[in-house]
Model the fold of this input.
Amino acid sequence: MADFTDKVGLIVGVANHRSLAWAIAQATANAGAKLILTYQGRFEEHVGELAATLDPKPTVLPCDVTSDEQIAAVFERIEQDHGGLDFLVHGAAFAAREEITGGFLKTTREGFKQALDVSAYSLIALTRGAQPLMAKRGGGSVVTLTFLGSDRVFPNYNVMGVAKAALESSVRYLAADLGPENIRVNAISAGPVKTLAAAGIGGFSSILGVVREKAPLRRAIETSEVGDTAAFLLSHAGRGITGEVIMVDAGYHIIGM
Ligand code: NAD
Done:
């Protein structure tokens, strides 16, 4: 069991109790972490209610990851309150519904920019904000969330697959940049889970059905399994791992047919 006593963590990407980022918040808070949770506009109430269930109660701040001002305000507040930061969880992703419905060929320039900005560039922007605060602690750990659609074609994943490929590549470049400062950067590639983001993907239930049928463990994953793997990567136990994409998918990715 990881120990996060005296550790401060920023978690971006909680929308509701189904969010993968919420499972990570629970896993790290239950092990003693002091958390800062951010929300995107309309999720303020939900995130506030969830935060109130954790002890110690996290600070809850707004952060739209497309806004450099909001990102800067989050790190200023963390510096004021805590003086440093030990870990960052990045669980934000978005593509417009019309971009992930039907053919990939009709991806628009705007839709492409938006998906890559929210889902991939934001990792770079947030890690840049975290870096000086982690340096003050002698190092840190960053975890983001990705999906096998970066590498293989899934129906209706489309531009989000391209965004996840960019995200995974960003993990490697960030890991190389920040390794000398003892800051590690990794991704968890989660199997499909019914969350709000997943609800936007047409035919998601059939993807889930195939995974349940074919994955070596013959089941889909639970969000707590992502929470536990993230806690491992964010903790001292993960200290030798950086630039990696860890599969938490009940083994689905190893199957040929
Ligand atoms: P979710 O809907 O609970 O989380 C997505 C989050 O992205 C939400 O909190 C939303 O507010 C946030 N977000 C979107 N646009 C934003 C913006 N402009 N600024 C700030 N935040 C913004 O769904 P989830 O499935 O928990 O997704 C979390 C991460 O996990 C995503 O990167 C997703 O691609 C990834 N993932 C999900 C699955 C799955 O099957 N659910 C599988 C693998 C990876």
